[in-house]
Design a protein that fits this description.
The protein is α+β, with helices and mostly antiparallel strands. It has helices at residues 5-14, 36-44, 130-147, 160-174, 177-186, and strands spanning 50-52, 59-61, 91-97, 100-105, 111-113, 124-127.
Length: 193
């Protein structure tokens, strides 16, 4: 499978209530041109305010029509619309998990990840593309749904077999076991020692 096919197949099967519909660039209402990679993401995958289960907070992917408003609280103040210092003009948020943003870098087309509430944004590269990001989210969600109540042990830690399953499946997408382990660890998917 190529492009967004795998992510679409998994999301459609594991989360049938979520809407994936092609969205055209004309729905973007931001103050800069929509990057080609983001336009393709919405045209090909088309997340329409999609929520994907995870360990802890779910992943959320806004619709293209809501993407500019989604920048409020990160790029600008939601009431005054005043730009925040410390937020790079290069960045814009394409999804989040519990308020922690997944940031598209307009200069590199990479996806950065940062934790909110730390006083300053320390965003680091997590994915090489939107496709890698959303496919990883879909795989995680699929593992969560498939595991059901068995996902965690009696102390609410992830069962190691599900961490291993996620690592193997994400490694196929990202191209290496090491990269999969790094990404999953950043997202809280590490085995308990």
């Amino acid at each position: 499978m190529s492009g967004y096919s795998l992510a679409k197949e998994i999301i459609t099967r594991a989360f049938p209530q979520e809407r994936l519909v092609p969205q055209l660039e004309g729905e973007w209402c931001g103050d800069f041109s929509l990057p080609v990679e983001v336009a393709c993401y919405y045209a090909e995958l088309g997340p329409d305010d999609v929520t994907i289960d995870a360990y802890g907070n779910p992943f959320f992917l806004p619709s293209l029509a809501d993407l500019w408003e989604f920048q409020a609280g990160y790029r600008f103040h939601p009431k005054t619309m005043e730009r925040f210092e410390g937020w790079s003009d290069d960045w814009f948020v394409v999804g989040y998990q519990g308020g922690d943003p997944f940031i598209f870098s307009r200069s590199s087309s990479r996806i950065l990840y940062a934790l909110h509430g730390r006083g300053a944004w320390d965003a680091n590269e997590l994915f090489r593309s939107l496709e890698a990001m959303v496919t990883t989210f879909a795989i995680i969600g699929d593992v969560v749904v498939g595991a059901g109540d068995d996902l965690t042990d009696e102390e609410s830690y992830l069962q190691s077999r599900y961490v291993k399953e996620a690592e193997e499946r994400v490694a196929d997408v990202l191209g290496s076991k090491g990269e999969a382990e790094t990404v999953l660890s950043s997202l809280g998917w590490a085995s308990r020692s």
